[in-house]
Amino acid sequence: MSTGPGPGSNPLAGAFGSLRGNRVRLVLTSSTLLFVELLLIRWVPSEVKYIGFFSNFLLMASFLGIGLGILLGRRRALDTIAIFPVILAIVVWMIASLELNVKVDSQDELFFGLAESTAADVNFLVLPIVFALVTALMAALAIPLGPLLRSMPPLQAYGWDITGSMLGIAGFTILSAAGTPPVVWFAVVAVLVTLLLAGSDGGGLLLRIPAAAALALVLWIAYASSTGSNEIWSPYYRINTYTAGNGELYVNVNGIPHQALHPVNAPKEQFYDQLYKWFPGRTYANVLIVGAGSGTDVAIALAHGAGHVDAVEIDREIQRLGINHHPDHPYQDPRVTRIENDGRAYLRGTDKKYDLVIFALPDSLTLVSSTANIRLESFLFTDESFQSVRDHLAPDGVFVVYNYYREEWLISKIDSMLAATFDSPPIMRMYDARKAIFAAGPLIDSLNGGAPPADTVDQVPAVGDPTPKAATDDWPFLYLRTPFIAPHYLAGLAFALIIALLGVFGAARVGGTSVRRFSPHFFVLGMAFLLLETRSLVSFSLLFGSTWLVNALAFFAILASVLLAILVNARLNIQRAGLLYGGLFIALAVAFLLPPESLLIDPPWLRYLLAGIVAFAPVFLANLVFTYSFRDTKTADMAFASNLLGAMAGGALEYLALLTGYRALLIVVAGLYLLAWLFATRWRVLADTALAHDDGASSELAGEESAATA
């Protein structure tokens, strides 16, 4: 079987037919795959309301699609990349033109924004529909990947694939940092796909004209959907603004109501002024506002005599709206210091004491990363975070939290967490629609259980069973009442599993591949590494901040560790896998015994060093284990496909953290790596290398081995 197109009428195809050309094409294909994956994870939630809470489903769909594309590519020429633009045009048209919204109705898990929007009238079936679309799209783009992986030695192919992936991440990160809109992202995809088409031989105008037309349609739809819509693209959201009838500017993110730029003297929610009603005439010399947003909370603090305000906001574009448009101009006041950071990371990096700390409605509408169910504010609302606030309060300071809490059990949960942290119950005032404000700290303790000087307080509503569970750094799920996996997650995972099973068997049949070629060893390695990667990214979000930049750099560093593992295995020619697995199990044990919160120490350089070693040692050793096995595989494409399908299954297993917390995932990871070791050493009939030497292997496989060796 040919491992690539031969030279023909297209001179670029002849160049790509060489080994060097295959390397270039593999890098180009991998970078395109990663760029498109990040684009979808970033763009789809901006168009499909509330799917930002489920972006890990998009990641699983990407893994599944790439695995299916490799299976399909075992009987497809490289020029089938021309199919991708047509499917992309269909997907972009459906996502941009149809009113697709995820509707979630749960009394035991909260999704901020649902109460404020009346547009989410489509049921939860939208999630599997989008999952299927993304799977099909990534499968079409990944069809050339299998032949390219077989065209050179496995480790060499894997190294070029990772290099391409790193280029894709770097490119998309730069575009996100620059605030570019989706039309630019799709233009980059059009250029990359055009380069891939230019290097393929065959198809001629019959395929290339529809592909070019489809790419043009994609760019037109992306441009038309943003024209005249007053859009701003931050690294987190698509931001739109509009002026209401009262003259105030309102902010929507991803099509969902999010903030309003209220003047100080305008009517607004009661909780903004409640602290000053409780303690009239009192001023606060040093104020910290986390979730300062567009500046309303800052303006109110200044109006009540704040001496200095540190305004922390994670999204620079939302803060910039406040700088440019807030009617009271709070960010221009010399008493205000603007800080772009994650609130928890800021608290960790400062030794300042504050008379007033406010968590000002820091409710996000997206996840930190596509691999975990961690929202931007998850690590702000844990027992450990409240303890950090306590340590930063002045001797007579006060900590204030307010929001639209929507459920009485959430009000009860926050009340009990604050009471446990400050050793005395907070005071609370609740308004209509379960809006509420809490105040805790030394100033409240000085009341000795009595009422504040002015205005009244309310009793915390009594809630029945089950008793809400406090959120911690290991189980950072404020918006879950108790550890459980909600039915909407189970339904979505069930649909994903059905699509995966049908897709694998269908792709194997179309690609002329028996499912017997499937490698359980590499499948389990994929499951284990996805869980390990998820836990590592969660740890880094806790240690260094839940910002987009931290997440991008951590993911880039993980891929860099893969390249280092490839180099080590290639140069040292390690012969005993048992040593690698033993080192991995030791590293996992150390990570389990030293959870991330135990590494929050000073000085910062020591914290970074220890965190890097503890978090990345298991990742690096896991990559050594994988590259050791991949080095000796005789069917690189099937091993890679099996690994990606395993990663998709690992994404589903990540939901176990909702039950156990993230630390316990390390036990699951260790069990999976033990199973992978048994597949490779004790049950070799289920290992890739044993299967490749099976007497029943087809002549096609033998031909592929010969071509790879040549």
Write the topology of this structure.
Layout: H1 11-16, H2 19-47, H3 55-72, H4 83-97, H5 126-142, H6 145-150, H7 154-177, H8 182-198, H9 204-226, E1 231-233, E2 238-243, E3 249-253, E4 256-261, H10 274-278, E5 286-290, H11 296-303, E6 308-313, H12 316-325, E7 336-340, H13 343-349, E8 354-360, H14 383-391, E9 393-404, H15 408-422, E10 427-430, E11 435-440, H16 442-445, H17 487-510, H18 520-544, H19 548-572, H20 577-593, H21 604-631, H22 636-653, H23 657-660, H24 665-681, H25 688-692, H26 699-709
Parallel strand pairs: 5-6, 5-8, 6-7, 8-9
Antiparallel strand pairs: 1-2, 2-3, 3-4, 9-11, 10-11
Helix pairs in contact: 2-3, 2-5, 2-7, 2-8, 3-5, 3-17, 3-22, 4-5, 4-9, 5-17, 7-19, 8-9, 14-15, 18-19, 18-21, 18-22, 18-24, 19-21, 20-21, 20-24
Give a verbal description of the structure.
With 710 residues, the protein is an alpha/beta fold. Helix content is 55%, strand content 9%. The chain has helices at residues 11-16, 19-47, 55-72, 83-97, 126-142, 145-150, 154-177, 182-198, 204-226, 274-278, 296-303, 316-325, 343-349, 383-391, 408-422, 442-445, 487-510, 520-544, 548-572, 577-593, 604-631, 636-653, 657-660, 665-681, 688-692, 699-709, and strands at residues 231-233, 238-243, 249-253, 256-261, 286-290, 308-313, 336-340, 354-360, 393-404, 427-430, 435-440. The chain is globular. Residues 1-16, 114-122 and 690-710 have low confidence and may be disordered.
